[in-house]
Amino acid sequence: MKRRFDPLGTEILKNALESLVDEMAMTVLRTAYSNNLKNSMDFSTALCQPSGELVAQGLTLPLHLGSVPHAMQSIRATYGDDTHPGDVFILNDPYAGGTHLPDIYVVKPIFWQDTLACYLVTIAHHADVGGKVAGGNGCDATEIYQEGIRIPPLKLYHAGKPNESLFALIEANVRVPRLVLGDLRAQLAACHMGERRVTTLFERYGLPELLERFDALLDYTERLARQAIAALPDGEYTFTDYLDDDGFDPGPIPITVAVRVHGDSITADFTGTAPQVRGGINSPIPFSRSAVYACVRCLLGEEVPNNEGYFRPIEVIAPPGTIVNPRMPAPVAARGLTGFRIANAVLGALAQLAPERIPACEMGGDTGVSIGGYDAAGTPFVYLEFLYGSSGGRPWGDGTDGLTSIVVNFSNNPVEVVESELPLRLERYGYVPDSEGAGQYRGGLSLVREYRLLEETATLQLRTDRHKHLPYGLAGGQAGTPTQNILNPDGAAQVLSSKPTLTIRRDDVFRHAEAGAGGWGNPLERDPALVLADVRNEKVSRQRARSVYGVAITPAGDIDWPTTEQLRRR
To answer: Would 89 be classed as within a structural domain?
Structure first.
């Protein structure tokens, strides 16, 4: 007999599970070795029921978490009943449930009284996976075999015993094994901590009842999601956004989506999107689906739990052989750019059906910077960082300066930590004035960062975009400003392309400025007091205030109201 829905008990369990996976995330944060995990927080945690369905996900990266069902299907299809207490699975193969090689999944099945009770999942973006470019994030591979060590679903531990051969294989194929193996052990530590916490739930509920409650929680989430979708107007809403290029062939590369709302379901159809490309920006289907799930989630309300239940009303159509669903052996290392652009396109479509809830385009996806080389003693170093930018203007307020994209959840990589651990000096880090997409509510400013190399030589690899196709504005707001890559900006300045790989030398300085975010609404309708505040904070110049917003500022630094009214009438 099906259990009657218990709203109070479901809420208590939901909060307990979310606390559990968040505590797993804190364990990774506290025990990781690489800056990309312990500072940027480029990792995720989750709990799945025995069928593999995602029951709880941590407050980490949406682009990771939507891929968990694919990884679980792959592991369960490979091992089935060959799963035992003490096992730990590992994979990173983007054609077997992963998203790209640096994202390594570590999955621990949890048993209670000799019965499979759940799976604990961690995903971490590792500092290196070998391949031709340090950091494993290069755009310049033309097939996945060039991108690093590829791990199908394997057992990292079998019945509690480590697979020493696999550990040795990983160690021998990465440039910075101390960081990689240290981060793997941080993932294991998170799984072990999660096992202790989930055991208390088994003791409290008993396994049969807890599994029933897992099902009830997923069904409850699905009901809430369907109710939210049913409240949206039926119809088809299309949008196309563009990637500049793939690093090999000139663009543009269109990402086209038709979002169809039909009753209590929603479909995102990418028919018409560009074919897969030569460069490593192709997005595997788990990653593409994750981007769609994250965007639709923005419309569902805070009361909807974060689990696979809200995936159920969402269908993603991604034709095989396209950049959003490539075929083997297409390279995918820099698939992050395409994931961000998928999100930009889906949100552009959703803005047509919920214009009061969707912001203008954020900076268009964080930049990946990889700097790798060897010090005087021959010891390799790898610097891997994903620079966030700012969010777009919103129907109710300005975009936020220095905020990561909604589909990831990165944090700041402190200058002091970078300089203490790597042969780099950060010479500049801040906002770029006059870089916002103008609007009634302006977009966030561009962020700029400058790196000086302190070793003899290194390889610089960039994963950037939005040089040509700028972050869009909405409701009459202006587009943002372009990304810039400049080598030695204060000397023999060399403007770099969007996705180069090049050798830099001691005292070379690389400057990167993120794109500015798009604006929302007519700039001439912006509150003059907000314009004045931006001028006083040196975010907007007096000239731009006058020419774009129609706001004149007196020499004393106040609003010249008669001139402002005249400018705005004109």
So the answer is: yes
